[in-house]
Amino acid sequence: MTVAPRRQRCKHAVVVGQLQRNNPRVNPFATLSLPSATPKATRAVKIFGGEVDLVWLPERARRRCPPQVLLHADRAPRILAEERLWQCDRSAAVLTPNRYPFARRAALLWSARPQREADAELIALALELAEPFGGTALLNTLGAAATQPRAHLHLVHERLGFLAGLATVPARLEHEDPALAAVDVVRLAPPFPGLVLGVRGARAARAAAAARLLALRVSAAANLVSDGTTTWFVPRRCETPAPHVSRPLGCAELWGRFCYEDEAEFAAADAASLAAAWAAALLPPA
């Protein structure tokens, strides 16, 4: 376990000493100073029998790189060095605050290694830090709304009931795999218009299964949403389902919170446009 930089040690020394993987009683959301989203406006839309939040967060526009950029600057080393709150050497992971939060007490759990994809160890640690304390772990890969070419997961101190409230049916997978045999796999049922798999079982087994699904997927882009009961795996076919939504649709939206940077688009969104966006962004239902 490595402590935070010297300028943060006074504030976080006790937390760094307590936040160890073998001490699940410590709540990172309560013991670390993490930012929360402050939307300019919010509203709700009912869709597929559930309800999603719509939030207007104009400041999130600053996090994006210009369109049609071939190479993205790697800002992860600076972020990990300057904004680190906690580091787990055992899992080669670093926790930082989310500078552009979309939920309460928002953090980012980064791989300390320069890798693009989250592995089983990073996913397992994210679930261990978030789920016992009423939090959610979420993931975007590149091409599915991630803005940094370094593996990382969002940890937020909220749970939304949208995905959990939708109907599911057992899923038939094309290939048998030991990691998937240890869990129950379901998929969202119609009228939901895209392929979304749900993995249910013990936390460690769900983390291993989610990592295996990411490794075996054919689609380049994918999301994860893990809420303490189910870890949802969402393969993608596009990042921005225009004209229904004009910006990347990612793990926050799949979780049940549509984040808008533009006020006019926030005001114009309705159930029909959101349903069409999901249908365009996701693979067809199996």
Oligomer: single chain
Q: Summarize the main sheet.
A: 10 strands, antiparallel
Widest beta sheet: strand line-up: 3-4-5-7-6-11-12-10-9-8
Q: Specify the overall morphology.
A: globular
Percentage beta strand: 15-25%
Helical content class? 25-40%
Mean pLDDT: 88
Termini distance? Answer: 44 Å
Unreliable spans: 1-18
Short note summarizing the structure:
This protein has 286 residues and is α+β, with helices and mostly antiparallel strands. It has helices spanning 6-18, 28-31, 76-83, 120-130, 178-181, 203-216, 251-255, 263-268, 271-281; strands at 41-47, 50-56, 86-88, 93-97, 107-111, 136-140, 152-156, 168-170, 184-188, 197-200, 221-226, 230-236, 257-260.
Protein model, in words:
Helix 4 runs antiparallel to helix 6 (203-216). The protein has 286 residues and is of the alpha+beta class. The longest helix is centred in the C-terminal third of the chain and has 14 residues, at 203-216. A hairpin with a 2-residue loop joins strand 1 (41-47) and strand 2 (50-56). It has 9 helices and 13 strands. Helix content is 27%, strand content 23%. The strands form 2 sheets. The chain has a 10-stranded antiparallel beta sheet, with helices on both faces. A 3-stranded mixed beta sheet has the order 1-2-13.
